[in-house]
Amino acid sequence: MLNFLAKLPAKRGAWALLAGSCFGLLAAALFFQYQMGLEPCVKCIEQRTAVLAIGLAALVPLVAPQVVWARLVGYVGWLLAAVWGWRIATSHLEIQNAENNWLFVCDMYPGFPSWMPLHEWIPSFFAAPGQCGEIDWQFVGISMPGWMQILFAAYAIAAVLIILARLLKLRRL
Q1: Which residue range is the domain that position 149 belongs to?
Q2: What is the mean pLDDT of each run of 10 residues along the chain (173 residues)?
Q3: What is an example of a Pfam family matching this protein (predicted)?
Q4: pTM score, two decimals?
Q5: How many domains does the chain have?
Q6: Which of 11, 15, 89, 91 is the most exposed place for a label (fewest CB within 10 A)?
């Protein structure tokens, strides 16, 4: 199993699977937004951005999986975005589960840097008209940020396992 995990980063298919899963999640988010009418809040958009970051980070080693620096960019982007997304999902879940969640107010706009106001450039993807405390959708009793917390944790755990397996294999060489 360790050997299998250690070999994955050198394979284009593994990075394609990671990127594809992220772009699939983004497509699902747009379906929820535009077909089901669920308006994303600021926390939703920040989680969407974290998923996008993982997907974009995976594209770098997808192009050149044998190049060490490309894999390093992939590892770092994948792990940082997964942890960042998990933290945002956790915060969002705390707001939704608070006894008086109406006391919590989302920011008006996502926290993009002033030099890159994505919510203004691409409002159809990054605008956040919804409210963080609202629970508009659930599946088996878990709301959207709960599922995102699970997904981000899975992404982070997978990243750590693959990086550790790769390091252990390199150490044995």
Answers
A1: 1-171
A2: 81 94 97 95 95 97 92 96 97 86 70 84 88 86 95 97 88 68
A3: DsbB
A4: 0.89
A5: 1
A6: 11
